[in-house]
Amino acid sequence: PRLSDQAIASPLLCGVVAFLYEKVLDFVLEKVWEQGSEKYIESIPSSIPPWTFIPLVCVTFGGLTGLLIRLLGEPMANLPGVVLAAHRDGVLGHEEAPAMAAISITSIVGAGSLGPEAPLVSIGGGLASLVSLSIDLSEAETLFVTMCGMGAGLAAFFGEPLGGALFACEVLHRHGIEYYEAVIPTVIAGLACNWSFRVLADLPQEPIWTFPPEPHLRPWTSILGLAYGVIGGVLGWFWMRMTNTIREKVLVPLKLGPRHIVKGLIGGAIIGGIGCLFPETLFWAEYEAQTIISLGETPLPHVSPTVGALGEYSLADPKILVAIGLAKLVAISITVLAGYRGGFIFPFMFAGHSVGTGIA
What we know:
By secondary structure, the protein is mainly α. The protein contains 13 helices and no strands.
């Protein structure tokens, strides 16, 4: 009973924190990318293209992200760090929550290809750990409550209580769910957090993306999944090799690891450069993916201006879609290596959307 109480109480609090986090994030995004873009375009001469606003913001907030990391330390606002802490300590540190929130917001506003899911998982797990430690739960119960907090953060972000809860249980292990005893409390936590978050934010319970109607699938259509899976696996292997190679051949020789401000400025310049070519590659892609799915009918929600250096192009062109997907993989790699904080679940989904739609 004590564990069940915490599975409800902690996530309700997590839902409030997730609501406040999203409100601050939306406020800063609007001020910088919507109002800031309008003022910039009005103030520059006609000879300067409007898309120059994109690298300006990316470099500025890339440097600001590095500065905050230098001042506040390196919080574990990424999924590998969260998993490591859960295995090592059974709890997530709540002391890092303010730093995680600030650094992840500057990373996102800087249009990096990392999203709020990892910070929300870390913050939710940290809050749950704090509550469990304050009432003197056992070590095993503390770990379960921490997992409830992680699942709650994902439930609020995904808008899917069951999926977020199961993901939190699975992500700790390479071979599926091992802490199967925590599934029911984590699902309860996801439901509680999703409810409180959506009540406060006045959000409907609906899918994140809307897909066009499809004709009935034929039995042989499933075989295409094998081909698409092989392509996805090759792209995943390519991304890991590319990221590790850049780290070994560039970051290590130049000793850029602890030079957070320099990494942020360089990363912001590259991310902004890619965004100048393909504005769809900017941000964490939760909403940008709908633009790809609708082949351009849904406008980009955050970036402004939406037309880059290549001018207008059609998202019904397979070559453009594949190019956007590959460019997104490069942007994710640079975002990670530059030290930005966030999760890359939606960015990778976006790359799959783009390449898969192009092939289809």
